[in-house]
Amino acid sequence: MTDLNLRSAYEFDLPESQIATHPHEPRDEARLLVVRGMHREHRVFRDIIDLLTPGDCIVVNDVTVRKARFFAKRHTGGIVEVMITDDITAPKRQFSCLYRASHLAPGEILCAVNDESVHITLDRNGSDRNALCTVTFLGDEPVVEILDRVGQLPLPPYIVKKRKRLGEAEYDSDDTEQYQTVYAQSGSAVAAPTAGLHFTDALIEKIKQKGVRFERLTLDVGAGTFRPVQTENLSEHVMHTEHYCVSQALADAIEDTHRAHHRVIAVGTTVVRSLEDQFDRFGKVVPGEYDTHIFLRPGRKFGIVDDMITNFHLPGSTLMVLVSAFAGHENIMAAYREAIDKGYMFYSYGDAMFLEVQDNAR
User: Whole-angstrom Cα distance, residue 237 to residue 224?
Assistant: First the structure.
């Protein structure tokens, strides 16, 4: 019998050819694998409207991905890659970051590669090369304005790596729009809530016209979303903390939806984590701002989310554990095998799944 407390229970082999490096165009023509227990159905994403009924409530994460990645140049000519992990919209000049370099002199001043008027210093916090570091922006210009000019959206490493192997540019001008949901408007994230990338304005309007609520929360997706599980025993894994905001309108919509015996459908794992963190705290959704490091694992009882829309996740990741807790480990692993056999595309720019919560997770 599979031990679901082990990372190896969530591993699978994926051909590199099925790692998506660019999104579907138009967005809603991505493939959609519908999973209800062991029953699976193959559709396209715009057919999502056929899976909804009037009175349902879709909840999305409307966070905005910021240009948190940039390159700086040393006086020696060496190039340093920097990715800020804080909210870059905060009114401050020092931010936590990750950077790739060695032997930087204390207080060494670097300039942005594409704007030499932008000067920074970098300090490593301790000797661990994987530890968070500190970047300080010199001068007075607001940092968010600097990064809007010199920064890039921080695409996931596996997209950049595969593009390089294919001889493509690591970033292209389309990424600025494509690696952002059409409804992004709040907060600051270093990664997109990728399940939402499949929605178009026209599809959202059709959903609303059907009598389905379309509500929002904001979770600031952090650098921890890229952090792999480094322990074989899941109980030893330390989850990263993320900040999220819940409005009165969302709390009211979810209460009304459940009172009328309709479904709450979460778009993405960030929404699932936020709403189930609310369930753990209050047994319902309560407006406010919160921090969560919730780790949703098999055996979990889901109290608010009824169905979810999600992308295909990396093997052995906390997100694979989450969807297994939600839809059933055996069901998920079988669905992934079938998706691989049928040529679905995986990860951030890949295809999507519609998952129904398993009975024993209620």
Answer: 12
